[in-house]
Amino acid sequence: MMAGMSHRRARQAASPPPELHCARCGTASAPDGVSRVAALRPEVLAALALDRSPGPTEPVCRACTAHARAAVFRDQLAAERGELGELETDIAKRAAEHVAIAMNLDAASEKEARLSDRLSDRLAKVGGSWGFVTAFLTILVGWMILNAAVLREGAFDPYPFILLNLVLSCVAAIQAPIILMSQNRAGIRDRAQATQDYRVNLKAELEVAALHDKLDLLLHHKWESLLALQDAQTDLLEELIDRTKKQVVES
Ligand SMILES: [Zn+2]
C-alpha cells in the first residue's frame, strides 16, 4: 500500500507540471513562465489589448507581458518628453524585459584601442607629469651650462642657443598633436560614458516608477482582501448573535 503511494508520488514528481496557455497569444508556457492577470498593473493590462475581460487567475506569457510593459514605458516617456528617439525606445524595451544595460566602458575602450591610441595616451600621460617637467628643465639647464660655461670656445650650440630653440620647437610641434589626439579620445570616452549614464538612469527611473505602481497595486489587493475578510467575520458574528438570541428566546 505504502509502496504503491510512494510510486504514485514519484510519478507525479517526475511528470512535468501542466502547461498554461497565454490569455493573449495562446502560447503554452510552464507555470513559472507566466504572470497572472491579477498581478499585472491596470496600464499593462490595458496595453495587452485583450478582446475580452480576463479572469484574475488567467495566465499571460512573459513575451506578451514584456511587450505590453514596453508599450506602457514608451507611452510614459512620450508623455514626459514628447517625440521619442531610438535610444528611449530601446531603453523602454530593455526595461520591460528586465535586461541589464550597465557596462564597464573603460574596459571596452581599452580593448578597442589601437597601438597608436595607446601610444598617444601614454605620451600625453608622461608629458603631463612633474617627472617630465623636472627632467626637461634639468636637460635645458645642463645644455646651457655645458655650452656657455664648460665648452666655451668649442661649444656646439653657443649663446643664444639656436639649436636648443630648434629642438624645443620640434618637441612642441610633436607634443601638441599627441596631446590633442589623447584629449579627443578622452572626449569620445566621456561622451560615451554620459550616454551610458543616461541610459542606465532612464531605465532605473522607469523600473522604479513601475515598482511604485506595483507596490500600490499589491497594497490595494491586500486592502481589498482584508475588507473581504472583515465582511465575512462580521457576517459570522451576526449569525452567531442571531443564533444566541434564538436560543435565549427558546429557553
Ligand atoms: Zn502571450
Explain how this protein is built.
This protein is mostly helical and 251 residues long. It is built from eight helices and four strands; from the N terminus they run αβββαβαααααα. A hairpin with a 6-residue loop joins β1 and β2 (28-29). α4 (86-97) packs across α8 (162-250). Bound molecules: zinc ion. Zinc ion (ZN) binds at residues 22, 24-25, 27, 61, 63-64.
Structural category: mainly alpha
Taking all Cα atoms into account, the compactness measure Rg is 37 Å
* Number of extended strands: 4
Order of helices and strands: HEEEHEHHHHHH
Helical percentage = over 70%
Catalogue the unreliable spans: none
The strand line-up of the biggest sheet is: 1-2
Report the β-strand fraction as a percent range. under 5%
C-alpha end-to-end distance: 53 Å
What's the main sheet like? 2 strands, antiparallel
